[in-house]
């Protein structure tokens, strides 16, 4: 449902599994090392310890990569690349495993982000990040990075994006970021300053109550499905912006739609078409998201962010690109 369909998501953070190891034909995982003698036992113990350490930081690595890339699949690839690098080093000589793993993940994310830039520049219509569904009992390692913030960060350089995410979302000090990025602390301050100024100019910060934001989103969705122009106008902030991502595969608005009147009229026209789909509310971090399913398949993910009052919708992100919806766990329970 967004200029001919819309979008976003909620369940457990995905990621590549840390493989077990095999010794003498026996699969070993966890702390299972009995039955292996001498140096072989020590080797297995070290491998298992390495897997345990990596497992402790995997959610951090995935979340960091996702915040930099906006893609679940690409973030999973970064985590797997980081694991392969970690598995190939002498882990006993690594003084700070967390710092080492974060450094690898950031470097891999930067490489991938640079390789994706040209493809995203040629993208048909607005580019939106893939929805990241989170379970209610799962706590990400960073402050919530919303869909809207990821859209804004897409306009920054890879280094500015990395510095901003590490500083603002994960709370790293400038000196720590400098070591990760191989830049001076002064250069890192400049990177974060430029990114922060850009973000603040395009996204004024305010704390929205999650339940109030959910109620505002529900009012908007109900008005859209009912095709009520008057109720849509009430549910939308005057300066609302609608972003549609069909990826050139599904018909969608090729430019952002701005203003309550235009957005309301658009949804009054297309909203009733989706009344027959099954709505499912999920969590994608700080923003409420409604998935629309047909025959058990997610067709639309609609993410909504409120205005400063928390009572009206100010940003609407409609994802209908099927390639970005394949990983969404539609069976996730409603967490709110």
What does it look like?
This protein has 336 residues and is an alpha+beta fold. The protein has ten helices and eight strands. A six-stranded mixed sheet has the order 4-3-8-7-6-5. Strand 5 (278-284) and strand 6 form a beta hairpin. Mean pLDDT is 81; it is low at 2-40, 136-142 and 331-336.
Shape: globular
Tally of DSSP helical segments:
10
- Based on secondary structure, the structural category is alpha+beta
Number of extended strands: 8
Helix-strand pattern, N to C?
EEHHHHHHHHHEEHEEEE
Descriptive terms for the model:
336 residues; alpha+beta; six-stranded mixed beta sheet; two-stranded antiparallel ribbon; 8 strands
Task: Give the SSE layout.
Elements: E1 21-23, E2 26-28, H1 38-69, H2 72-87, H3 97-121, H4 147-153, H5 158-169, H6 174-181, H7 185-202, H8 210-226, H9 229-235, E3 236-245, E4 257-258, H10 260-270, E5 278-284, E6 287-294, E7 297-306, E8 313-319
Parallel strand pairs: 3-8
Antiparallel strand pairs: 1-2, 3-4, 5-6, 6-7, 7-8
Helix pairs in contact: 1-2, 1-3, 2-3, 5-7, 6-7, 8-9, 8-10, 9-10
In short:
With about 325 residues, this protein is an alpha+beta fold. It has 10 helices and 8 strands.
